[in-house]
């Protein structure tokens, strides 16, 4: 079996730069294909309005970079995804969980504990996760 990891660009932060390269800060969803079912790794940044409201950051995302559109472009139906792996719970990695209503979400226990009560200096990294639509 050959597995392929597909990076899906779901926007950039035009006012933020990667320190080492000077490139625009990109946001991704990753999909692992080639197994029994696609596996999603990180669910990307939330939408433009939520990013601005929660973090004050400007997000640029065209229609082709909408998370649902990126998944459809590689023939992945989010309702058929059974597994989502969240590498960590910073706002820019877990903003589209609602797209995967039938998925089991895996996250490290310590990461989940820390996201619930982060140190004061880290709170903004988890800020966008605190939304009224999150229920668990």
Describe this structure in words.
With 136 residues, this protein is of the alpha/beta class. Helices cover 20% and strands 24% of the residues. The chain contains 4 helices and 5 strands. A 5-stranded mixed sheet has the order 1-2-3-4-5, with helices on one face. It starts with a strand and ends in a 10-residue tail after the last helix. The model is unreliable at 128-136 (pLDDT under 50).
Write a brief caption for the model.
The chain is of the alpha/beta class and 136 residues long. Helix content is 20%, strand content 24%.
Strand order within the widest beta sheet: 1-2-3-4-5
Sheet having the most strands:
5 strands, mixed
Q: Roughly how much helix do the residues carry, as a percent range? A: 10-25%
**Distance N to C terminus:** 35 Å
Order of helices and strands: EEEHHEEHH
